[in-house]
Amino acid sequence: MLIMNNVSKSYGRFLVLENINIEFTNGIYGLLAPNGAGKTTLIKMLTTLIFPNEGEILYNGTDIFAEGDEYRDILGYLPQEFGYYKNYSPRKFLHYISVLKGIDRNKTKKKIEGLLKLVGLEDVANKKMRKFSGGMIQRVGIAQAMLNDPKILILDEPTAGLDPKERVRFRNLLTQLSRERIVILSTHIVSDIESIANEIIMIKDKKILHKDNLKNICKILDGKVYETKLDFDQVLNFRNEYFFLSEKQEDGSMKIKFISERKMNL
Amino acid sequence: MEDLIRDYENKEECMMIVASNKKQELRIKGILEKSLETSVFSSVIFDNYNTLIKSVVATILLCLMFMITPIYLIDNKDKISYIQYTSKIGRKIFEKKIIAGILASFIVVTLQLISFFIIYSLNNTSMFLNSNINSIYSTIISWYDLTFIQYIFLTVVGIYILAFVLALISMLVSSIGKSYITVIGIQLPIALFSFTIFLGYLIHFMTDIRYPKYFLGLSYITLILINTISMKIRWKRERKADILY
């Protein structure tokens, strides 16, 4: 079990996260927040890249920073900006990462071949990554994160650059993997996690806003979502008053889905 | 020829021209008492070796700077350190890279020195290897009673120390710099300083009495200490730093 206890992080005087308390058990957790809300900071703390100013992060009761390489040994991480050597082939790069991860040399080859097949890169396994598309690079990133069969898999914006078919394949893969491990998935794309996440964690104003399953989170909005049709010139004023979920042009007017705390008769 | 004979006949006067203080005078008197000035060693051999070795050291140091500088820079710039620092090896990779850098420098220096000495052996100077360098016809008066082979050995030791020092400086710059432009900006004055000061005072005319007796040893010790301590401080900071590139 991975626990964040009263964790706060600030850079100088700028407070990014305040009193974060989360508990992770096996399953998929979707970390949902707008850009700049502190998702990556939270993830970087869970991956030991940055240190909290206050609080502690425990894995099975031990501080992850004190545990050091033992904790990192069960960690798989795909950063938001995945760095790679452009002149390496995926196979060579995965071999390099497996050395860093301290994986047994006898098992490495088989594991790499399996992962290359899993992410659909076996045909280009020996090609230099210099000419790869964003989606292909992202798949190399996913493969390297899973190389050590991690008990905690942390993926920061993993579907960026993947095409719809790859997204589906990736979601199915995560569902399979989550049975025996903690998977934390950070994204600002709701559709990436709505069907697979066991729990959704929402961050707002430096704090955890909600941590619940999708059904319960949707209940919060029960009776608050409305739909209406407006003339184009009315839209601007209406936008200032209500939070828009979607807007669409239809039959010469605007069809708008929005949230309202007040009861409305439309 | 007449000049050579005249110099030899007035050897004390001739050698004492260099002395500007008591210690230097005493050293020259010591050489004359031991009759070391009668050594067959000549300035032609010495100057030839010094000119050649100076160019070799410049090549070695330049090679090292080009080779070592990207060691941390590439990984930090391309954000590969995120993967490295979150894998089992973690931040220890910083320390491993120092060891790798030192080992690589050792290999490069050794290979270049082997190549140089193979070519230098064709100069047919082997008959002077056991001659004392404090000859009346030599361009150096040393603080120590060194033979030519001992002097060569001393320059080799000096080259290895300078190479390791420069490798450590390059690694330090590489770990701090955020882009190639910054790193080149820092490395350029370091290179100029190395090629003028290091080569001029620490390799060329090693142990010459023109410099204080302990200047050479103290300079090397200071260089080693400054670099080792700076690298240790950098490594300590890296262990505790937030990785935010």
List its salient traits.
heterodimer, A: 266 residues, alpha/beta, 10 helices, B: 245 residues, mainly alpha, 71% helix
Can you summarize this structure?
The complex is a heterodimer of chains A (266) and B (245). With 266 residues, chain A is an alpha/beta fold.
Number of separate domains of chain B: 1
Summarize the amount of helix of chain A as a percent range.
Answer: 25-40%
Beta strands of chain A, count: 13
In percent, how much strand structure appears in the residues of chain A?
Answer: 25-35%
Mean pLDDT of chain B: 91
Helix content of chain B: over 70%
The chain pair with the largest interface is: A-B, 25 and 21 residues
Give the strand line-up of the largest sheet of chain A.
6-7-8-3-9-10
Number of helices of chain A: 10
Class by helix and strand content of chain B? mainly alpha
Biggest β-sheet description of chain B = none
Poorly predicted residue ranges of chain B: none
Anisotropy-based shape of chain A? globular
Count the E strands of chain B: 0
The percent range for strand residues of chain B is under 5%
Kindly report how far apart the N and C termini of chain B lie.
Answer: 69 Å
Oligomer: heterodimer
The ordered H/E elements of chain B are HHHHHHHHHH
Task: Give a written overview of the molecule.
The complex is a heterodimer of chains A (266) and B (245). By secondary structure, chain A is an alpha/beta fold. Chain A has helices at residues 39-46, 64-67, 69-72, 90-100, 105-118, 134-146, 164-177, 190-194, 214-220, 232-241; strands at residues 2-11, 14-24, 27-32, 54-59, 62-63, 75-78, 152-156, 182-187, 199-204, 207-212, 225-230, 243-250, 253-259. In chain A, a hairpin with a 2-residue loop joins strand 1 (2-11) and strand 2 (14-24). In chain A, helix 4 crosses helix 5 and helix 5 (105-118) runs antiparallel to helix 6. The radius of gyration of chain A is 21 Å and the shape is globular. Chain A starts with a strand and ends in a 7-residue tail after the last strand. Helix content of chain B is 71%, strand content 0%. Chain B has helices at residues 2-9, 11-16, 22-33, 43-68, 70-77, 81-86, 92-120, 148-176, 180-203, 215-240. In chain B, helix 4 (43-68) runs antiparallel to helix 7 and helix 8 packs antiparallel against helix 9. The longest helix of chain B is centred in the middle third of the chain and has 29 residues, at 92-120. The radius of gyration of chain B is 22 Å and the shape is elongated.
